[in-house]
Write a structure and sequence with these properties.
Jelly Rolls; 3-stranded antiparallel sheet; 4% helix
Length: 112
């Protein structure tokens, strides 16, 4: 399997909705079993809610503040983030060029 970032970015933003008025900020790149890889490029406000699987973010460009369970840290190109399943998290102060890969895997509820 192969994913091409250029073709994935052409899909973003996706359709707008009540949750994502600026358009869906992610698109699926690859999937296999419980694993999925997405490109995530939020613009405006990040409205994501906790996910049922563990996840990894790999920041590819730009910067943002990452808030996880109320703790804030700055993230930028080259950073990797881990979020256990069901933890509240989102990005704030998102730069216009922010882009990340996000990988979801494992059972609902995360690995223990």
């Amino acid at each position: 399997m192969k994913a091409s970032l250029g073709s994935l970015l052409a899909r973003l933003p996706g359709p707008s909705s009540e949750k994502w008025p600026d358009g869906e900020p992610s698109t699926v790149a690859l999937g296999h079993g419980t694993m999925s890889v997405e490109v995530f490029a939020p613009r405006g406000q990040d409205q994501q809610t906790p996910h049922s699987q563990d996840e990894l973010y790999f920041i590819m460009s730009g910067s943002a503040d990452f808030i996880r369970e109320g703790r804030r840290s700055q993230v930028a190109l080259g950073d990797a983030l881990f979020v256990p399943a069901n933890e509240r998290h989102h990005f704030e102060n998102i730069s216009n060029d922010f882009l990340s890969w996000v990988v979801f895997w494992g059972p609902n509820g995360g690995e223990r």
